[in-house]
Specification:
Radius of gyration: 23 Å
Distance between the termini: 66 Å
Number of helices: 18
Strand content: 5-15%
Largest sheet: 6 strands, parallel
Shape: globular
Structural class: alpha/beta
Strand order of the largest sheet: 2-1-3-4-5-6
Length: 417
């Protein structure tokens, strides 16, 4: 069987899924396609669809443009992911209904689809997200607290971009109000945040706030190891993946009762649930954990035990079961070719996946450079094996960097004159 994975990116959340599926489903071959390919290179996209037995739209179908999508849905059985939809995003649900099966990660969205959107129970597959428990391991030594003298460190690695969309899905307003409550206990708490747009909603240089911007996976793991509690203030969620990473690294989670939190967390045993995105409830639980370190340690231990069942080695094969159910023929492995045709040349499946990931990493490096995340941009190139084989991507990035610096200096010089 050959499965085509269509995603708008191959790093961070979607990247973990698209990397895990080939690794733990050896009886299935996987092809990759960037979501933009459907609009920009429709013939190339449909060529990949025809070479596959099943198409899995990891990115929501509503976010993929191009007439080739409708053709792809006619050509092959398909799976469409629906992870969350706000009150004004009914179009997401309408889009995924076109697929043969709908994939959700939590019971919340399975119930929503069956009760509110007239989707048959048999059409929905609930498979949770996974986590690499070997990478996100538990570190019992709180290195950050010891090195800084901070008594209690909190983390929230949500992206503040949701504030600009009109509906604050991530509950950033709750987090901001919580910081005001924590300021009463000056010097006792530090809130560690990562990601974009925080400078527009919060004074990231104020005392008690640590803003780390873009971070690598290794840096993210180190940040988890320095936390005493992790906060999820979201109003609507599919996961989030940070829930699983925090539990894997042995960090007690305080979360709203949304997404996978309601499936994984047993209140008071392996984490804590609050009924709504109310800052006072978060504050009370934070203060409780700070006063009762023995309870925090017990919760952290049970959280790790819970999440070990969600390691990708156990979760990824369930996706394979979904593909086999979707396929008209139970087993198609006998007809899998050795190579695939992509952009006019023959390559094996691994090479095809690597070429798509390399294109995605180069695009991401450009975006990082445009945000002046210089070190992360160069790391994005250097960590990709395909991009390292030739100096051209690095030379391109250096040239782009020089142009940016030249423009910045000339602009400053003109202002001074």
């Amino acid at each position: 069987m050959i499965v085509l994975l269509v995603s708008r990116d191959f790093h961070w959340v979607f990247g973990q899924l698209t990397n895990a599926l080939p690794r733990y489903n050896k009886q299935i071959e996987f092809l990759y396609a960037h979501a933009d390919l459907a609009a920009k290179e429709p013939e190339e996209f449909l060529n990949l669809v025809r070479q596959a037995d099943i198409v899995h739209f990891v990115t929501n179908l509503a976010h993929i443009s191009g007439d080739s999508i409708n053709e792809a849905l006619k050509l092959r059985p398909s799976v469409a992911g629906l992870y969350h939809a706000t009150c004004d995003e009914e179009y997401k649900i309408l889009a995924v209904k076109k697929a043969t099966l709908i994939h959700v990660m939590s019971s919340e969205w399975k119930e929503y689809l069956t009760n509110n959107s007239n989707v048959s129970h048999d059409k929905i597959w609930q498979i949770p997200f996974g986590v690499d428990t070997r990478f996100f391991y538990t570190n019992t030594l709180n290195t950050y607290s010891k090195s800084t003298g901070v008594e209690f460190r909190l983390g929230s690695f949500a992206n503040a971009n949701s504030v600009r969309t009109g509906f604050d899905r991530k509950g950033i307003d709750t987090l901001l109000e919580l910081t005001r409550l924590l300021e009463r206990d000056e010097g006792k708490y530090v809130l560690c945040i990562t990601g974009q747009n925080w400078k527009n909603v919060l004074n990231v240089k104020s005392r008690g706030i640590e803003h780390h911007g873009f971070v690598s996976r290794q840096q993210l793991r180190n940040l988890y190891h320095g936390l005493d509690a992790y906060l999820i203030t979201s109003r609507i969620e599919g996961g989030p993946v940070t829930l699983m990473e925090a539990m894997a690294t042995g960090v007690p989670v305080i979360s709203t009762n949304v997404g996978m939190s309601r499936d994984l967390i047993l209140h008071g045993q392996n984490g804590f649930l609050v009924t709504e995105s109310v800052p006072e409830e978060f504050y009370e639980l934070i203060a409780f954990l700070r006063r009762h370190s023995n309870v925090a340690a017990t919760v952290a231990r049970y959280a790790r035990e819970t999440i070990e069942s969600y390691d990708w080695s156990r979760i990824a094969p369930i996706y394979g079961e979904m593909y086999h159910k979707l396929s008209a023929t139970p087993s198609l492995t006998s007809r899998i070719p050795n190579t695939v045709c992509f952009r006019g040349r023959e390559m094996n499946f691994k090479e095809q996946r690597e070429s798509i990931v390399a294109e995605n990493n180069l695009k991401w490096a450009k975006e990082l450079l445009g945000k002046w995340e210089i070190r992360q941009a160069y790391n994005q190139i250097w960590q990709d094996e395909v991009l390292r084989r030739t100096p051209l991507p690095l030379m391109y990035l250096v040239a782009r960097h020089i142009r940016m610096m030249t423009y910045k200096l000339s602009h400053r010089f003109s202002l001074e004159r």
